[in-house]
Amino acid sequence: MGLTEQVTAVEAGESGKASAPEYQGALGSLSVNASLTDVLARGVEELRAAESAGDLKETARCSLAVAEACRRLGRTAEADQAWKAGYRAARAAGDAAAMAWALWSGGTLARQRGAFRLAYRLLALAAEWGERGGDVVVRGYSLAGLAETGRIQGDYAAVEELHEQLLAEARRRGEARHTVWALEGIAQMHRNTGAYDRAHALFEEAAEIADRAEDRRGWAWALRGMADVVSVRDGDVEQALTLLSRAEAACRTMELRGALAFNLKMRGNVLYRAGRYDQARELYTRALTEFRDMAEPRGTALSRLGLAKARARLGRDSAETAAELAVLRTELNRIGLHHARDMVDKAAAELGVGPLPGPVPRAAAATTPPDAYRTEALRATDVAGLR
What we know:
Layout: H1 9-12, H2 36-53, H3 56-72, H4 76-93, H5 96-112, H6 116-132, H7 136-153, H8 156-173, H9 176-192, H10 196-213, H11 216-234, H12 237-254, H13 257-273, H14 277-294, H15 297-313, H16 318-335, H17 338-351, H18 369-372
């Protein structure tokens, strides 16, 4: 049986409910909807017990849960320490699958922190070690991570096919959580290219699947996407805000700090489009504070852009607006956030302050995502910071 034909107990989804394969070992009974504070407390407790017992495999499993809880809570330095510690334990135990999970966590964190080259490197390695270890789940998660990294950068041509392939595989396996993820990624690309009806339909389908599977995280992200579309396509402010309020409630239950910050930023977008610039400015400011505190560059940049636009509409000097947008565009180009960089140019035109001074050529992508996982994987000892 080939790797892509394998179906593990986690992925089979016999109950039709979403599962959390990143919670393993002593933490395997935790729900995908568990409070992250609770996950972290339990993870630290079990990690200490595993370390005391000298159980390297269990140490790696518990470190993974700790790393993911810290990452989603915005505690990025602790997340970085945890995934690396988990990788070292897995390597010492000779557990290829556990090594892959640690690398997936590290790659996901790298993307969250805007380190796209490192994200590609770690996620490609995670996919390779997942295949070596015979773990179809972590391999799928790693390929999905590569696709998402390219999508976030705006390299849609490179990752659209990979998204579609992963969606087809998730549907075939009946894996609700990954089906929802893939639908939302494809929907976001359609939304960003102006295919609003298609985007809304995909977000709506994702929300329905997530709701049936009791995947509150995926459900909340789908509602946020729907809110964006009904705002930009229909101008329906109240419907958009209602959807965002429902998503916010779910995110607060799980303490999804990043998702809550993006919810704030999206509320700002909705109110900005409605001409309610004072309220939009307040929300962008709050979102910016959250993203900066989490060291999350993409959210920081998008909030800065929204705030600059709101301030411009409220009478800020046009030269100051142009200068700020030029700095932001340069920063986005440096990071590799191509789609967001293009949004700055559109904002400058919208506000009548463009073209911006000092044109910056679009930076090349860190790597082509579909190629990244097909290339020969780097040796584990070559991973930065793990020697």
